[in-house]
Write a structure and sequence with these properties.
Layout (H helix, E strand, L loop, with lengths): L5 E3 L1 H30 L8 H25 L1 E3 L15 E6 L4 E8 L10 E3 L3 H6 L7 E6 L2 E11 L1
Parallel strand pairs: 1-2, 4-5
Antiparallel strand pairs: 3-4, 3-7, 6-7
Helix pairs in contact: 1-2
Length: 158
């Protein structure tokens, strides 16, 4: 079974690489020091600091494994090669939200980079999925829990 590709922009790739480096170089040393200090306190069977440090170590190692897997399966979107005639990953899209009678701007990114509060939506989200492949001037409808929402695509940029 092939693993799912992790779609990333260059910025997203850089952030993940920096996080991985921070965890491997800095966090591992900090946790190792915590474990060493907790061991020095004696009986490990009733040592809350030791248990806490070991739990933190497990969480960090799990995150490292996750990041390494994501980076191993990363497909980086070259934003310079993006065709701005149709919407794809890496595009910044200006929409007219017909329900709220307002303009909104979103950047389409892979799921690992998504942050709707800052206008970065996943290509796998209902709105992102509806936008992929569409062009300026098209009208789309997106299913929401409370019904359908309609948008008109006003502008596509890199």
């Amino acid at each position: 079974m092939t693993e799912k590709k992790t779609m990333l922009t260059y910025d997203g790739l850089k952030k993940l690489e920096e996080e991985l480096q921070e965890l491997k170089v800095v966090k591992r040393k900090q946790i190792a020091q915590k474990i060493k200090e907790a061991r020095g306190q004696g009986d490990l069977s009733e040592n809350a600091e030791y248990d806490s440090a070991k739990e933190e170590q497990a969480e960090v190692e799990a995150r490292i494994a996750t990041l390494e897997k994501m980076l191993r399966n990363a497909e980086v979107i070259d934003e310079e090669d993006i065709d701005t005639n149709t919407i794809n990953l890496g595009c910044k899209v200006k929409l007219f939200d017909e329900e709220f009678d307002e303009e909104v701007v979103y950047t389409i990114v892979g799921s690992t980079e998504a942050d709707p509060l800052t206008g970065r939506i996943s290509n796998e989200s209902p709105l992102g999925e509806a936008l992929i492949g569409k062009a300026t001037g098209e009208r789309i409808e997106v299913s929401a829990p409370d019904g359908l929402t309609y948008y008109k695509i006003l502008e596509i940029n890199r």
